[in-house]
Amino acid sequence: MTQSAQSRPRGLLRKLLGPWALGAALLVILGAVAWVASATTTARRAPAPSGCETAGPGPLELDGCDLRGANLAKAHLQRAYLLGAQLEGADLQGGDLRGVTASGVSLAGAELSGARLNGADLDGADLEGSDLHGACLRGADLHDADLRWSNLRNADLAGADITGANLSGAQLAGASLPAGVTRNPVSTATPKPSCSS
């Protein structure tokens, strides 16, 4: 058999299997990409590492814990230590965070609507794009905090230190602001019951 006669069946085989092989390779690649994306999402939603339990007798020691995207709605984190913790995108809606020590912590994009943050130390904290709608921040230390594009509608900031805080683009309609702050519109409504305790 001549060499050209031998190469004909291989050429025919390549023509027949070429697109299928290419398609199979593409499916394998797409499957691997989907698996990596799934593993990354699962890692982001993984439970807190050992030593980062978010329940139990307080005050909790959560310094350095990775709690990004964690569901901590209505959590009792009163007087918790959160220094160096990562809470980007965490759900802390309605949580009790009174007196937390969270100086410099990132809460960017966090859900904090209705949370009680009375007396919280959020000095230099990153709260960019966070939802603090109706939150109680009475007496909180927000010195140099990043509150850009955050939702502070109907929040109670009476007595809070917002010296040097960046409020660019923040929604402040109905918010009770500290004395001397003349950012409009300012609510004269009485504090919400959650802020009285």
Write a brief caption for the model:
The chain is an all-alpha fold.
Q: What features would you highlight for this structure?
A:
197 residues; mainly alpha; Pectate Lyase C-like; 2 domains; 1 helix
Global Rg: 26 Å
Tertiary shape: elongated
Average pLDDT, rounded to a whole number, is 79
What name does CATH use for the topology of the largest domain? Pectate Lyase C-like
How much helix is in the residues?
10-25%
N-to-C terminal Cα separation, in Å? 95 Å
The largest sheet, given as strand count, sense and whether it forms a barrel, is: none
Q: What can you tell me about this protein's structure?
A:
The chain has one helix and no strands. With 197 residues, it is mostly helical. The chain has two domains: 1-44; 51-197, 3 Solenoid (Pectate Lyase C-like), CATH 2.160.20.80. The protein is elongated, with a radius of gyration of 26 Å.
